[in-house]
Amino acid sequence: MTLTLYNTLTRRQELFEPLEPGKVRMYYCGVTVYDYCHLGHARACIIWDVVRRYLQWRGYEVRFVQNFTDIDDKILNKARQEGSSMEEVAERFIQAYFEDMGRLNIKEADEYPRATHTLDGIQRLIHELEHKGYAYPAQGDVYYAVRRFPEYGKLSGRKLEDMQAGASGRVGVEDPEASKKQEANDFALWKAAKPGEPAWESSWGAGRPGWHIECSAMVRDRLGDTIDIHAGGADLIFPHHENEIAQSEAVTGKPLANYWVHNGMVTVNGEKMSKSLGNFITIRELLDRPTDPMAIRLFVLMAQYRKPIDFTQDAIAAAQNGWNTLKEGLLFGYEYGGQLGWAVREAENPPIQNPQVERFQSAVDDDFNFAGGLAVLFELAKELRKEGNLLVHQGKTETPPQVLEQQWHTLVTLAQVLGLAAKANDEAAQPSPGLSDAEIEALIQQRQSARKAKNFAESDRIRNELQAQGITLIDQAGGVTRWHRN
RNA sequence: GGCGGCAUAGCCAAGUGGUAAGGCAAGGGUCUGCAAAACCUUCACCCCCAGUUCAAAUCUGGGUGCCGCCUCCA
Protein backbone atom coordinates (compact mmCIF):
# COMPACT_ATOMS: atom_id res chain seq x y z
CA MET A 1 0.00 0.00 0.00
CA THR A 2 1.18 3.49 -0.72
CA LEU A 3 0.85 6.76 1.06
CA THR A 4 -0.40 9.71 -0.91
CA LEU A 5 -0.88 13.27 0.22
CA TYR A 6 -2.21 16.52 -1.12
CA ASN A 7 0.59 18.89 -2.05
CA THR A 8 -0.36 22.56 -1.92
CA LEU A 9 2.48 23.29 -4.33
CA THR A 10 1.12 21.15 -7.13
CA ARG A 11 -2.52 21.24 -6.03
CA ARG A 12 -2.64 17.53 -6.51
CA GLN A 13 -2.57 14.43 -4.42
CA GLU A 14 0.78 12.76 -4.89
CA LEU A 15 2.57 9.60 -4.00
CA PHE A 16 4.79 10.21 -1.00
CA GLU A 17 8.44 9.42 -1.63
CA PRO A 18 10.98 10.82 0.80
CA LEU A 19 14.34 12.01 -0.40
CA GLU A 20 16.07 9.33 1.53
CA PRO A 21 14.23 6.00 1.63
CA GLY A 22 12.77 5.30 5.05
CA LYS A 23 13.55 8.72 6.44
CA VAL A 24 11.38 11.79 6.64
CA ARG A 25 12.51 15.30 7.33
CA MET A 26 9.57 17.35 8.47
CA TYR A 27 9.23 20.96 9.56
CA TYR A 28 6.18 22.52 11.08
CA CYS A 29 5.78 26.28 11.34
CA GLY A 30 4.90 26.66 14.97
CA VAL A 31 3.54 29.53 16.95
CA THR A 32 4.46 33.08 17.75
CA VAL A 33 4.69 33.14 21.50
CA TYR A 34 2.86 36.25 22.63
CA ASP A 35 -0.23 34.68 24.14
CA TYR A 36 -1.83 31.40 25.12
CA CYS A 37 -2.56 29.01 22.29
CA HIS A 38 -6.15 28.72 21.16
CA LEU A 39 -8.12 25.90 19.66
CA GLY A 40 -6.88 26.79 16.19
CA HIS A 41 -3.32 26.16 17.29
CA ALA A 42 -4.44 22.98 18.97
CA ARG A 43 -5.91 21.73 15.73
CA ALA A 44 -2.71 22.34 13.81
CA CYS A 45 -0.56 20.75 16.50
CA ILE A 46 -2.80 17.71 16.79
CA ILE A 47 -2.92 17.16 13.05
CA TRP A 48 0.84 17.36 12.53
CA ASP A 49 1.44 15.35 15.66
CA VAL A 50 -0.71 12.57 14.27
CA VAL A 51 0.84 12.82 10.82
CA ARG A 52 4.20 12.35 12.45
CA ARG A 53 2.99 9.43 14.55
CA TYR A 54 1.43 7.87 11.49
CA LEU A 55 4.61 8.16 9.45
CA GLN A 56 6.51 6.55 12.30
CA TRP A 57 4.00 3.78 12.57
CA ARG A 58 4.33 3.27 8.83
CA GLY A 59 7.98 2.59 9.47
CA TYR A 60 9.62 5.90 8.64
CA GLU A 61 12.27 7.41 10.77
CA VAL A 62 10.94 10.91 11.22
CA ARG A 63 12.93 13.93 12.18
CA PHE A 64 10.40 16.52 13.27
CA VAL A 65 11.40 20.13 13.83
CA GLN A 66 9.07 22.86 15.01
CA ASN A 67 9.99 26.46 15.62
CA PHE A 68 9.03 29.11 18.11
CA THR A 69 8.88 32.63 16.76
CA ASP A 70 10.20 34.61 19.68
CA ILE A 71 11.02 37.86 17.93
CA ASP A 72 7.98 39.73 16.76
CA ASP A 73 6.09 43.01 17.02
CA LYS A 74 3.25 41.43 18.93
CA ILE A 75 5.59 40.03 21.53
CA LEU A 76 7.18 43.45 21.85
CA ASN A 77 3.80 45.08 22.27
CA LYS A 78 2.85 42.61 24.93
CA ALA A 79 6.09 43.24 26.77
CA ARG A 80 5.56 46.96 26.54
CA GLN A 81 2.03 46.67 27.87
CA GLU A 82 3.07 44.77 30.92
CA GLY A 83 6.39 46.46 31.40
CA SER A 84 8.46 43.33 30.94
CA SER A 85 10.79 42.17 28.20
CA MET A 86 10.40 40.26 24.98
CA GLU A 87 12.42 37.37 26.43
CA GLU A 88 10.25 37.26 29.49
CA VAL A 89 7.03 37.16 27.48
CA ALA A 90 8.36 34.59 25.03
CA GLU A 91 9.68 32.35 27.77
CA ARG A 92 6.39 32.43 29.66
CA PHE A 93 4.29 31.49 26.64
CA ILE A 94 6.70 28.80 25.55
CA GLN A 95 6.22 27.23 28.95
CA ALA A 96 2.47 27.60 28.58
CA TYR A 97 2.71 26.01 25.15
CA PHE A 98 4.37 22.91 26.58
CA GLU A 99 1.81 22.66 29.38
CA ASP A 100 -1.14 22.92 27.03
CA MET A 101 0.21 20.61 24.37
CA GLY A 102 1.34 18.12 26.99
CA ARG A 103 -2.22 17.92 28.24
CA LEU A 104 -3.36 17.28 24.69
CA ASN A 105 -0.88 14.43 24.42
CA ILE A 106 1.15 16.11 21.68
CA LYS A 107 4.53 14.42 21.36
CA GLU A 108 7.46 16.77 21.69
CA ALA A 109 9.31 17.66 18.53
CA ASP A 110 12.88 16.50 18.05
CA GLU A 111 13.99 20.11 18.14
CA TYR A 112 12.43 23.47 18.89
CA PRO A 113 14.65 26.10 17.30
CA ARG A 114 13.91 29.72 18.13
CA ALA A 115 14.53 32.87 16.18
CA THR A 116 16.69 34.24 18.98
CA HIS A 117 18.93 31.18 18.77
CA THR A 118 19.25 31.31 15.00
CA LEU A 119 20.62 34.79 14.44
CA ASP A 120 23.82 33.54 12.80
CA GLY A 121 22.02 31.42 10.28
CA ILE A 122 19.57 34.21 9.59
CA GLN A 123 22.29 36.77 8.96
CA ARG A 124 24.20 34.35 6.77
CA LEU A 125 21.16 33.80 4.64
CA ILE A 126 20.46 37.51 4.25
CA HIS A 127 24.05 38.09 3.22
CA GLU A 128 23.82 35.43 0.58
CA LEU A 129 20.59 36.89 -0.72
CA GLU A 130 22.23 40.26 -0.86
CA HIS A 131 25.23 38.92 -2.76
CA LYS A 132 23.05 37.15 -5.22
CA GLY A 133 21.06 40.28 -5.81
CA TYR A 134 17.80 39.25 -4.23
CA ALA A 135 17.98 41.64 -1.31
CA TYR A 136 18.64 45.32 -0.91
CA PRO A 137 19.29 47.46 2.13
CA ALA A 138 17.27 50.57 2.84
CA GLN A 139 17.93 52.82 5.82
CA GLY A 140 19.03 50.03 8.12
CA ASP A 141 16.34 47.63 6.88
CA VAL A 142 16.94 44.91 4.33
CA TYR A 143 14.22 43.88 1.90
CA TYR A 144 13.67 40.97 -0.41
CA ALA A 145 13.14 42.04 -4.02
CA VAL A 146 10.24 39.87 -5.02
CA ARG A 147 10.56 40.74 -8.73
CA ARG A 148 13.97 39.11 -8.82
CA PHE A 149 12.56 35.69 -8.03
CA PRO A 150 10.68 34.58 -11.15
CA GLU A 151 8.86 31.78 -9.37
CA TYR A 152 7.39 34.06 -6.75
CA GLY A 153 3.78 33.05 -6.23
CA LYS A 154 4.13 29.42 -7.25
CA LEU A 155 2.95 28.03 -3.93
CA SER A 156 -0.08 30.24 -3.46
CA GLY A 157 -0.89 30.28 -7.15
CA ARG A 158 -0.85 33.99 -7.65
CA LYS A 159 0.88 36.47 -9.87
CA LEU A 160 2.37 39.68 -8.65
CA GLU A 161 0.08 41.62 -10.99
CA ASP A 162 -2.97 39.96 -9.47
CA MET A 163 -2.15 40.96 -5.97
CA GLN A 164 -3.94 43.98 -4.75
CA ALA A 165 -2.17 45.59 -1.88
CA GLY A 166 -4.36 45.89 1.15
CA ALA A 167 -7.27 44.08 -0.47
CA SER A 168 -7.89 42.17 2.71
CA GLY A 169 -8.85 45.43 4.32
CA ARG A 170 -6.75 44.63 7.35
CA VAL A 171 -3.72 46.54 6.32
CA GLY A 172 -3.61 50.24 6.83
CA VAL A 173 -3.19 52.11 3.60
CA GLU A 174 -0.09 53.84 4.83
CA ASP A 175 2.54 51.16 5.23
CA PRO A 176 5.35 52.74 7.25
CA GLU A 177 7.88 50.71 5.29
CA ALA A 178 6.42 51.60 1.90
CA SER A 179 8.86 54.42 1.22
CA LYS A 180 11.83 52.11 1.72
CA LYS A 181 10.55 49.33 -0.49
CA GLN A 182 11.16 49.15 -4.19
CA GLU A 183 7.86 47.43 -4.60
CA ALA A 184 4.82 46.93 -2.40
CA ASN A 185 5.22 43.14 -2.25
CA ASP A 186 8.81 43.27 -1.10
CA PHE A 187 9.15 42.11 2.48
CA ALA A 188 11.58 42.76 5.30
CA LEU A 189 14.44 40.37 5.93
CA TRP A 190 15.97 42.63 8.56
CA LYS A 191 14.48 45.53 10.43
CA ALA A 192 16.52 48.37 11.92
CA ALA A 193 16.05 48.63 15.66
CA LYS A 194 13.88 51.40 16.98
CA PRO A 195 14.98 53.01 20.25
CA GLY A 196 14.33 50.80 23.23
CA GLU A 197 13.76 47.64 21.20
CA PRO A 198 15.86 44.54 21.56
CA ALA A 199 18.41 44.41 18.77
CA TRP A 200 21.25 42.32 17.41
CA GLU A 201 24.36 43.68 15.78
CA SER A 202 24.77 43.18 12.08
CA SER A 203 26.54 44.65 9.12
CA TRP A 204 23.35 46.57 8.33
CA GLY A 205 23.35 48.05 11.82
CA ALA A 206 21.56 47.01 14.97
CA GLY A 207 18.27 45.37 14.25
CA ARG A 208 16.21 42.22 14.26
CA PRO A 209 15.14 39.68 11.68
CA GLY A 210 11.89 39.85 9.76
CA TRP A 211 9.39 37.12 10.32
CA HIS A 212 9.85 34.86 7.30
CA ILE A 213 13.61 34.54 7.28
CA GLU A 214 13.81 32.59 10.54
CA CYS A 215 12.07 29.57 9.06
CA SER A 216 14.32 29.52 6.02
CA ALA A 217 17.34 29.65 8.31
CA MET A 218 16.08 27.05 10.74
CA VAL A 219 15.16 24.56 8.08
CA ARG A 220 18.54 24.94 6.50
CA ASP A 221 20.44 24.69 9.79
CA ARG A 222 18.54 21.76 11.18
CA LEU A 223 17.32 19.75 8.22
CA GLY A 224 19.24 20.80 5.12
CA ASP A 225 18.52 22.53 1.84
CA THR A 226 15.61 20.36 0.83
CA ILE A 227 13.21 18.67 3.22
CA ASP A 228 10.40 16.23 2.63
CA ILE A 229 7.42 17.80 4.33
CA HIS A 230 6.80 21.39 5.26
CA ALA A 231 3.61 21.82 7.28
CA GLY A 232 1.60 24.69 8.64
CA GLY A 233 -1.77 26.36 8.78
CA ALA A 234 -3.47 27.24 5.51
CA ASP A 235 -3.31 30.88 6.50
CA LEU A 236 0.47 30.69 6.21
CA ILE A 237 0.50 29.76 2.54
CA PHE A 238 0.67 33.39 1.63
CA PRO A 239 2.78 35.25 2.34
CA HIS A 240 4.77 33.28 4.87
CA HIS A 241 5.49 30.06 3.01
CA GLU A 242 5.68 31.82 -0.31
CA ASN A 243 8.37 34.04 1.14
CA GLU A 244 10.22 31.13 2.68
CA ILE A 245 10.43 29.56 -0.74
CA ALA A 246 11.65 32.80 -2.28
CA GLN A 247 14.36 33.15 0.37
CA SER A 248 15.58 29.59 0.48
CA GLU A 249 15.38 28.64 -3.15
CA ALA A 250 17.00 31.84 -4.35
CA VAL A 251 20.03 30.91 -2.27
CA THR A 252 20.22 27.15 -2.71
CA GLY A 253 18.71 26.74 -6.15
CA LYS A 254 16.98 23.65 -4.78
CA PRO A 255 13.39 23.05 -3.71
CA LEU A 256 12.87 23.99 -0.07
CA ALA A 257 10.38 21.20 0.43
CA ASN A 258 8.98 18.49 -1.80
CA TYR A 259 5.61 18.37 -0.10
CA TRP A 260 3.79 21.38 1.26
CA VAL A 261 0.89 20.46 3.49
CA HIS A 262 -1.58 22.78 5.17
CA ASN A 263 -4.27 22.32 7.76
CA GLY A 264 -7.67 24.01 7.59
CA MET A 265 -8.86 26.62 10.01
CA VAL A 266 -11.08 26.31 13.04
CA THR A 267 -14.12 28.50 12.66
CA VAL A 268 -16.70 29.85 15.07
CA ASN A 269 -20.14 30.43 13.60
CA GLY A 270 -18.53 29.91 10.24
CA GLU A 271 -15.84 32.54 10.76
CA LYS A 272 -12.19 31.87 11.27
CA MET A 273 -11.15 31.72 14.90
CA SER A 274 -8.54 34.38 15.38
CA LYS A 275 -7.13 36.85 17.79
CA SER A 276 -8.19 39.82 15.72
CA LEU A 277 -11.82 38.75 15.62
CA GLY A 278 -11.73 37.97 19.32
CA ASN A 279 -13.73 34.78 18.78
CA PHE A 280 -11.10 32.42 20.11
CA ILE A 281 -11.08 30.04 23.02
CA THR A 282 -7.74 29.12 24.52
CA ILE A 283 -6.76 25.53 25.01
CA ARG A 284 -6.50 25.96 28.76
CA GLU A 285 -9.93 27.58 29.00
CA LEU A 286 -11.41 24.69 27.10
CA LEU A 287 -9.57 22.07 29.13
CA ASP A 288 -10.46 23.73 32.39
CA ARG A 289 -14.18 23.81 31.65
CA PRO A 290 -13.42 20.90 31.89
CA THR A 291 -13.17 19.20 28.54
CA ASP A 292 -11.46 15.86 28.09
CA PRO A 293 -8.25 16.39 26.09
CA MET A 294 -9.03 13.26 24.14
CA ALA A 295 -12.41 14.67 23.16
CA ILE A 296 -10.57 17.63 21.69
CA ARG A 297 -8.29 15.31 19.74
CA LEU A 298 -11.30 13.42 18.50
CA PHE A 299 -13.08 16.64 17.55
CA VAL A 300 -10.08 17.52 15.41
CA LEU A 301 -9.51 14.08 13.92
CA MET A 302 -13.11 13.48 12.94
CA ALA A 303 -12.76 16.12 10.24
CA GLN A 304 -10.64 16.05 7.11
CA TYR A 305 -7.52 17.98 8.04
CA ARG A 306 -7.69 20.44 5.16
CA LYS A 307 -11.31 21.45 5.65
CA PRO A 308 -12.50 24.06 8.09
CA ILE A 309 -14.13 22.77 11.27
CA ASP A 310 -16.68 24.76 13.17
CA PHE A 311 -16.29 24.95 16.91
CA THR A 312 -19.53 24.65 18.82
CA GLN A 313 -20.43 23.37 22.24
CA ASP A 314 -22.52 20.65 20.59
CA ALA A 315 -19.62 19.50 18.45
CA ILE A 316 -17.39 19.17 21.51
CA ALA A 317 -20.15 17.35 23.37
CA ALA A 318 -20.57 14.93 20.48
CA ALA A 319 -16.83 14.35 20.45
CA GLN A 320 -16.92 13.72 24.19
CA ASN A 321 -19.62 11.09 23.75
CA GLY A 322 -17.64 9.54 20.95
CA TRP A 323 -14.56 9.45 23.11
CA ASN A 324 -16.49 7.75 25.91
CA THR A 325 -17.24 4.95 23.49
CA LEU A 326 -13.63 4.61 22.39
CA LYS A 327 -12.45 4.80 25.98
CA GLU A 328 -14.64 1.93 27.05
CA GLY A 329 -13.11 -0.12 24.30
CA LEU A 330 -9.60 0.94 25.23
CA LEU A 331 -10.13 0.08 28.90
CA PHE A 332 -11.57 -3.32 28.07
CA GLY A 333 -8.28 -5.14 28.40
CA TYR A 334 -7.47 -3.60 31.75
CA GLU A 335 -10.89 -4.35 33.14
CA TYR A 336 -11.59 -7.78 31.77
CA GLY A 337 -8.28 -9.08 30.53
CA GLY A 338 -7.48 -10.74 33.82
CA GLN A 339 -10.91 -12.32 34.04
CA LEU A 340 -10.44 -13.66 30.51
CA GLY A 341 -7.10 -15.15 31.37
CA TRP A 342 -4.85 -12.91 29.33
CA ALA A 343 -1.49 -11.82 30.47
CA VAL A 344 -2.51 -8.19 30.59
CA ARG A 345 0.33 -5.98 29.68
CA GLU A 346 0.79 -2.45 28.62
CA ALA A 347 0.08 -2.68 24.95
CA GLU A 348 3.29 -2.43 23.06
CA ASN A 349 2.77 -1.85 19.41
CA PRO A 350 4.28 -4.81 17.71
CA PRO A 351 3.39 -4.86 14.04
CA ILE A 352 -0.07 -6.28 13.73
CA GLN A 353 -1.47 -7.49 10.48
CA ASN A 354 -5.19 -8.03 10.22
CA PRO A 355 -8.14 -6.77 8.21
CA GLN A 356 -8.85 -3.92 10.62
CA VAL A 357 -5.29 -2.65 10.46
CA GLU A 358 -5.38 -2.86 6.70
CA ARG A 359 -8.61 -0.95 6.52
CA PHE A 360 -7.21 1.71 8.82
CA GLN A 361 -4.05 2.04 6.83
CA SER A 362 -5.70 2.22 3.45
CA ALA A 363 -7.95 4.99 4.77
CA VAL A 364 -5.16 7.03 6.32
CA ASP A 365 -2.78 6.40 3.43
CA ASP A 366 -5.24 8.39 1.36
CA ASP A 367 -4.17 11.91 2.26
CA PHE A 368 -4.38 11.33 6.02
CA ASN A 369 -8.03 10.41 6.10
CA PHE A 370 -8.20 10.08 9.87
CA ALA A 371 -11.98 10.17 9.95
CA GLY A 372 -12.04 7.12 7.73
CA GLY A 373 -9.51 5.42 9.98
CA LEU A 374 -11.52 6.27 13.06
CA ALA A 375 -14.45 4.28 11.75
CA VAL A 376 -12.32 1.16 12.28
CA LEU A 377 -11.57 2.16 15.86
CA PHE A 378 -15.23 2.81 16.57
CA GLU A 379 -16.24 -0.56 15.24
CA LEU A 380 -13.65 -2.29 17.41
CA ALA A 381 -14.51 -0.22 20.47
CA LYS A 382 -18.23 -0.81 20.13
CA GLU A 383 -17.66 -4.51 19.78
CA LEU A 384 -15.47 -4.59 22.87
CA ARG A 385 -17.87 -2.44 24.81
CA LYS A 386 -20.63 -4.85 24.00
CA GLU A 387 -18.51 -7.78 25.12
CA GLY A 388 -17.63 -5.93 28.30
CA ASN A 389 -21.29 -5.31 28.98
CA LEU A 390 -22.07 -8.94 28.42
CA LEU A 391 -19.42 -9.82 30.98
CA VAL A 392 -20.88 -7.37 33.49
CA HIS A 393 -24.50 -8.22 32.86
CA GLN A 394 -24.32 -11.91 32.20
CA GLY A 395 -20.97 -12.76 33.66
CA LYS A 396 -19.81 -14.40 30.46
CA THR A 397 -19.39 -14.03 26.74
CA GLU A 398 -19.44 -16.47 23.86
CA THR A 399 -16.54 -14.82 22.06
CA PRO A 400 -13.21 -16.61 22.51
CA PRO A 401 -10.79 -14.68 24.75
CA GLN A 402 -8.03 -14.75 22.14
CA VAL A 403 -10.32 -13.01 19.67
CA LEU A 404 -11.07 -10.31 22.20
CA GLU A 405 -7.45 -9.93 23.08
CA GLN A 406 -6.56 -9.52 19.45
CA GLN A 407 -9.29 -6.94 18.94
CA TRP A 408 -8.21 -5.03 21.98
CA HIS A 409 -4.58 -4.94 20.95
CA THR A 410 -5.55 -3.74 17.52
CA LEU A 411 -7.68 -1.00 19.01
CA VAL A 412 -5.00 0.14 21.44
CA THR A 413 -2.35 0.13 18.74
CA LEU A 414 -4.41 2.14 16.28
CA ALA A 415 -5.47 4.55 19.01
CA GLN A 416 -1.84 5.16 19.86
CA VAL A 417 -1.18 6.07 16.26
CA LEU A 418 -3.79 8.78 16.66
CA GLY A 419 -2.46 9.81 20.05
CA LEU A 420 -5.62 8.65 21.75
CA ALA A 421 -4.98 7.02 25.09
CA ALA A 422 -7.20 6.05 27.98
CA LYS A 423 -5.48 5.78 31.30
CA ALA A 424 -6.01 2.40 32.81
CA ASN A 425 -6.04 3.74 36.33
CA ASP A 426 -8.11 6.80 35.57
CA GLU A 427 -10.85 5.84 37.94
CA ALA A 428 -9.18 2.99 39.73
CA ALA A 429 -6.67 5.44 41.14
CA GLN A 430 -9.39 7.07 43.13
CA PRO A 431 -9.72 5.30 46.43
CA SER A 432 -13.29 4.24 46.97
CA PRO A 433 -13.61 4.25 50.72
CA GLY A 434 -17.37 3.62 50.58
CA LEU A 435 -19.03 0.33 51.27
CA SER A 436 -17.32 -3.01 51.26
CA ASP A 437 -18.51 -5.73 48.93
CA ALA A 438 -20.13 -7.55 51.81
CA GLU A 439 -22.05 -4.47 52.89
CA ILE A 440 -23.27 -3.96 49.38
CA GLU A 441 -24.38 -7.57 49.11
CA ALA A 442 -26.25 -7.18 52.38
CA LEU A 443 -28.07 -4.08 51.17
CA ILE A 444 -28.99 -5.87 47.98
CA GLN A 445 -30.45 -8.70 50.03
CA GLN A 446 -32.53 -6.21 51.99
CA ARG A 447 -33.74 -4.72 48.76
CA GLN A 448 -34.65 -8.11 47.39
CA SER A 449 -36.79 -8.77 50.44
CA ALA A 450 -38.48 -5.41 50.06
CA ARG A 451 -39.18 -6.14 46.44
CA LYS A 452 -40.67 -9.49 47.25
CA ALA A 453 -42.92 -7.76 49.76
CA LYS A 454 -43.79 -5.23 47.08
CA ASN A 455 -42.39 -2.54 49.29
CA PHE A 456 -41.03 -0.62 46.31
CA ALA A 457 -40.56 2.60 48.21
CA GLU A 458 -38.02 0.83 50.39
CA SER A 459 -36.37 -1.03 47.52
CA ASP A 460 -36.02 2.18 45.52
CA ARG A 461 -34.58 3.92 48.57
CA ILE A 462 -31.85 1.30 48.83
CA ARG A 463 -31.17 1.47 45.12
CA ASN A 464 -30.85 5.25 45.25
CA GLU A 465 -28.65 5.08 48.29
CA LEU A 466 -26.26 2.72 46.52
CA GLN A 467 -26.37 4.77 43.35
CA ALA A 468 -25.40 7.84 45.35
CA GLN A 469 -22.30 5.94 46.41
CA GLY A 470 -21.46 5.10 42.84
CA ILE A 471 -22.83 1.59 42.83
CA THR A 472 -25.11 0.63 40.00
CA LEU A 473 -27.54 -2.24 40.35
CA ILE A 474 -28.56 -4.37 37.43
CA ASP A 475 -31.77 -6.30 37.85
CA GLN A 476 -31.76 -9.26 35.59
CA ALA A 477 -34.46 -11.59 34.49
CA GLY A 478 -35.06 -14.31 37.06
CA GLY A 479 -34.74 -11.96 40.02
CA VAL A 480 -30.96 -11.89 40.08
CA THR A 481 -29.36 -8.56 40.86
CA ARG A 482 -25.81 -7.86 39.77
CA TRP A 483 -23.91 -4.74 40.64
CA HIS A 484 -20.79 -2.83 39.78
CA ARG A 485 -19.02 0.28 40.89
CA ASN A 486 -19.15 3.11 38.37
C1' G B 1 -11.17 42.76 -8.15
C1' G B 2 -7.49 38.33 -8.12
C1' C B 3 -6.21 33.30 -6.32
C1' G B 4 -7.69 28.81 -3.84
C1' G B 5 -11.16 25.58 -1.46
C1' C B 6 -15.88 23.49 -0.04
C1' A B 7 -21.37 21.93 -0.75
C1' U B 8 -23.53 14.09 1.28
C1' A B 9 -29.37 12.54 6.79
C1' G B 10 -31.24 16.77 12.63
C1' C B 11 -25.64 17.58 13.44
C1' C B 12 -20.36 15.88 12.31
C1' A B 13 -18.40 12.96 8.46
C1' A B 14 -16.23 8.81 4.79
C1' G B 15 -16.87 7.58 -0.04
C1' U B 16 -13.65 10.17 -6.47
C1' G B 17 -17.71 5.73 -12.25
C1' G B 18 -21.17 0.33 -10.35
C1' U B 19 -25.77 1.51 -6.99
C1' A B 20 -24.42 5.68 0.05
C1' A B 21 -18.60 3.72 5.96
C1' G B 22 -18.49 5.55 10.84
C1' G B 23 -19.80 8.90 14.95
C1' C B 24 -23.35 12.03 17.71
C1' A B 25 -28.48 12.69 18.38
C1' A B 26 -33.44 10.69 17.75
C1' G B 27 -37.40 6.80 17.30
C1' G B 28 -39.18 1.64 18.04
C1' G B 29 -38.68 -3.14 20.53
C1' U B 30 -36.98 -6.89 24.48
C1' C B 31 -36.16 -7.03 29.71
C1' U B 32 -38.24 -4.48 34.50
C1' G B 33 -42.88 -3.53 39.91
C1' C B 34 -41.06 1.08 37.87
C1' A B 35 -36.42 2.69 36.42
C1' A B 36 -31.40 2.31 35.06
C1' A B 37 -28.11 -0.54 32.44
C1' A B 38 -27.77 -3.90 28.60
C1' C B 39 -29.26 -6.19 24.07
C1' C B 40 -31.98 -5.97 19.21
C1' U B 41 -33.65 -2.56 15.62
C1' U B 42 -35.05 1.95 12.38
C1' C B 43 -33.22 6.42 10.02
C1' A B 44 -30.24 9.85 2.99
C1' C B 45 -31.08 8.63 -3.95
C1' C B 46 -25.61 12.95 -2.14
C1' C B 47 -27.06 22.15 -3.60
C1' C B 48 -29.48 23.24 -8.73
C1' C B 49 -29.50 22.69 -14.26
C1' A B 50 -27.52 20.48 -18.64
C1' G B 51 -24.14 16.86 -20.72
C1' U B 52 -20.78 12.21 -21.21
C1' U B 53 -21.73 6.88 -19.98
C1' C B 54 -24.91 0.56 -20.06
C1' A B 55 -24.03 2.95 -15.22
C1' A B 56 -22.46 9.48 -11.76
C1' A B 57 -22.66 11.64 -5.09
C1' U B 58 -18.37 10.43 -7.97
C1' C B 59 -16.39 12.86 -14.85
C1' U B 60 -17.50 17.64 -18.06
C1' G B 61 -19.89 22.51 -18.67
C1' G B 62 -22.99 26.27 -16.47
C1' G B 63 -25.38 28.18 -12.09
C1' U B 64 -26.24 29.16 -6.72
C1' G B 65 -24.42 29.39 -1.80
C1' C B 66 -20.54 29.35 1.89
C1' C B 67 -15.38 29.76 3.49
C1' G B 68 -10.02 31.02 3.36
C1' C B 69 -5.89 34.09 1.45
C1' C B 70 -4.34 38.83 -1.05
C1' U B 71 1.78 40.92 3.55
C1' C B 72 -1.18 39.90 11.96
C1' C B 73 -2.33 34.80 11.51
C1' A B 74 -2.15 27.51 13.13
Task: Give me a quick take on this structure.
With 486 residues, the protein is α/β, with parallel strands linked by helices. Helices cover 43% and strands 14% of the residues. Helix 4 (119-131) packs across helix 6 (237-252).
Quote the CATH topology of the largest domain: Rossmann fold
The pLDDT mean sits at 90
User: What's the CATH superfamily of the largest domain, by name?
Assistant: HUPs
What summary fits the major beta sheet?
4 strands, parallel
Query: So, CATH architecture of the largest domain?
Result: 3-Layer(aba) Sandwich
Range of helix content: 40-55%
CA(first)-CA(last) distance: 43 Å
Query: Could you spell the SSE succession in H and E letters?
Result: EEEHEHHHEEEEHEHEEEHHEHHHHHHEE
Number of domains: 3
Radius of gyration equals 28 Å
Q: What's the CATH class of the largest domain, please?
A: Alpha Beta
* Strand order in space, largest sheet: 4-3-9-10
State the secondary-structure class.
Answer: alpha/beta
Share in β-strands: 5-15%
Unreliable runs, pLDDT <50, ≥5 residues? 426-431
Number of helices: 14
The oligomerization state is: single chain
β-strand number: 15
